[in-house]
Amino acid sequence: MVKKLLLLFVAIALIGCAYEGQELKTYIKNPRWFIKDPHFANYKDKRNALESSYLNKELTYAEYVEEMNGLDETYAKEVQERDAKIAESY
User: Burial letters for 71-89: b for 16+ Cβ neighbours within 10 Å, e otherwise?
Assistant: First the structure.
């Protein structure tokens, strides 16, 4: 049992040394890369779909700009509402 634990510890140490903690360094410099905001992810997906539609010539430029502005305004309003709710809780 002790030999297995020692072998496991050595394996983990070797993996850690080979890995050199690159992800840990990245996380320390920018911790937000690991934390995902589902609200922003949804906005980003809608924005990408809209851009794709425009690039595939399914929308005119005027329609694209109008829908993009509407999407941006909606997202900004939702963020303000969310921030207000967070501020109220403090």
Answer: eeeebeeeeeeeeeeeeee
pLDDT tens-digit series, residues 36-53? 778 888 999 999 999 999
Structure tokens of 75?
A: 């997202």
Alpha-helical (H) ranges within 1-90 are 2-19, 22-29, 38-55, 61-89
Tokens 């080979």 correspond to what residue? 18
The pTM of the full predicted model, rounded to 2 decimals, is 0.57
Q: How far is CA 33 from CA 39, 43, 62, 78, in A?
A: 15, 17, 34, 22
Per DSSP, the three-state class of 8 is helix
Segment holding 21, helix H or strand E: none
| Cα gap 90→85, rounded to integer Å | 9
Amino acid at 30: N
